[in-house]
Amino acid sequence: MAVSSRLGALRSQLQEFSVLLVSSLTNIRxxxxxxxxxxxxAVGPDKxxxxxxxxxxxxxxEQLTASGAPxxxxxxxxxxxxxxxxxxxxxxxxxxxxxxxxxxxxxRLKAFQEEWFPGxxxxxxxxxxxxxxxxxxxxxxxxxxxxxxxxDAALAxxxxxxxxxxxxxxxxxxxxxEMRELGASEPSFETIVASGPxxxxxxxxxxxxxxxxxxxxxxxxxxxxxxYCSDMTRTVWASKPPADAEMRRAISVVAQAQSAGVExxxxxxxxxxxxxVCRDVIADAGFAERFVHSTGHGVGLDIHExxxxxxxxxxxxxxxxxxxxxxxxxxxxxxxxxxxxxxxxTEDGCRPLTLSPKESI
Length: 361
Ligand code: ZN
Ligand code: ZN
Hints:
Creatine Amidinohydrolase, 361 residues, binds zinc ion, 19 strands, three-stranded antiparallel sheet, six-stranded mixed sheet
């Protein structure tokens, strides 16, 4: 991955203030390679400083060396970190510092204002690093492809067991175990297994309910590989397709909407238009009110990140973006359907990363 060039790309966006204090651990990882659970990264016009505590002394030094990111390191307790950052800001003559508005709590802001950086004007900044993260480099795409491959393989191995009378929770645990066996560090989010009427809840938490033959089961899950996530949903069933006629129609409508949405993805297209393409297919079939969420989201180091694929999204898709297309129809008391792929946006279309078959759908 091209970690070492990312600070330069960030600096070209920082005209408003001379230093950005990065506090999001995901953004710190993206910019420096450091994966510890505590730290702050100050990015100035021509130098950057990472502060962290003694638990990460060796790890931080190793990871900065491995990434090649031009970042100085200060390992100290809280007081030492504060002094090092104050010195960094002073040396630059910085009077105005950007904070990550979406990440800094009220309490932390107060501490920064009163104790850490008195005399420095703290200004909110939003989405600077996230905007860079939206476009994936080839190394990132390799990792996301591997995460998707692991999820595909885990599902292929476990689908034959759907008719064994397992509970939703057991099936979910088997999927999670299999993904780890195949090389995932963890599931990329809490696996959703929603059977029968439970599938009417888009984010059902799997429980003790036994999966019965002839029920639609929504399985939404992903793997994390070297930090990067995959995200996929398949609607599957044991033995025979659902008997309910409306469910069978919902299944075929969602499949059409999902493939129309994937076909609409290409560089230069407004993300809102991809949402509209999916929504129109579902509305034309009379299910408009039953598609209760947005069509998709960006995926990367976070399971949900920029860009947003929603009706109200102002984002335009660019080559290298990775987004999901996941329309659904949910019928309270009866069941639900969702189909989701994670795709890489290209100049002339997109390349799906999640490749599990949809034939059973
Ligand atoms: Zn998902
Ligand atoms: Zn998703």
